[in-house]
Amino acid sequence: MAPENPKLPPAGPSGDARETPPNPARVTDPDSDVVGLVANGDMTGALRRLMERHGTSVYRYCREALRDATLADDVQQQVFIEAFRDLPRFHQRSSIRTWLFGIARHRVLDAAKSRRRAQAHIDGDDATGVPDPRPAPGEWIDGVRLRKALVACLDELRAQVRVALLLRFQQGFTFEDMAVMCDEKPGTLQAQVTRALPVLRACIENRTGGSL
Amino acid sequence: MSDPIARIEEALAGLGAEHEPPRGWEARVLAATAPPKQRRWWVFAAPAVALAAVAVFVLRWPREPGFELAITFDRDSVVVRGDVSPHVGDVAHATAIGGGPNCAVWIYRDDALVMACPGGAKCRSSSTSTSADVTLTIGTYWIVALRASSPIAMPAGKIDLDLARAQDEGATLARKHLTVH
User: Fold this and answer.
1) pTM, entire model
2) From residue B125, how far is each of B73, B76, B79, B94, B141 by CA, in Å?
């Protein structure tokens, strides 16, 4: 049998040389019905259900990670096309959502890399270029201003860190789930995210001139 | 006032909440993952049927059957075919092929008739051919195959007159010349 997506962490069946403890996701995965559809050969039904449940969150993740509506649209579609292709090789060593976002993470990083190479256009709603009315020094930064500055400051981070922050806070993944997606240790990712938050704070306060 | 880091985490959680995927994205994914449309069987069958029809037309269309005169020789009980010099004592087997029901083989030696088939003792006829066997002696032979749409009259015995009359009556001729030394 062909392996799962080679860019994703291994998720082989039991008997694999790299055996891992049983994953609770196998039992509790709310998308287990999707696996059932695949087992019954209803690939299109499985794809429809995945798109219905995760389409919006994958799009928002791509959109915020890439800050480009058109690119996010393309990447989102690539994610589901790839998921459709690889679903028969999904072995439930993680939840389907984790697996799906693993694909999304790879596609986002690939797209970001390609864009850097091509010096592609970044869409108009990119807040990095929007002048921010500066409050008085030390003034509390309101939610709107915080969001704008946050978006701009995220763009200053490395793509890997930005993606990790979004997976953790926007999508609510645990570090264990993220470790499966990123093929990293949970502690490494936690340290990466923990280090990034004060950097973001400093950047936001510096940009706005206010205080969080 | 809340913890600044918690505020950032909260803001991160809300990022992109206002964005919705573009309309029709699901249809585009489904289109991209749809199996390629299988062509209907008759798309492939039509050219094959057309070719078969042409083949039947070419192979089965009624054609005028070929008409030819073939000669082989028996020399010392061995059949000799092809372009050979006949010898005295050889038996020539002259066969008119494809002549239909009105077919004849006439054999002349030095312009005089020596055998006419059908009708002779050494004649053989079938639905597709008429044959004559003659033992060769020294002289010049003309072996003539004839076919016509009506029965061919028996030859009188002189080659020029016989062939002229047969042609006048609409017969088609095929002939070969042998010189036996």
Assistant:
1) 0.56
2) 18, 25, 20, 12, 22
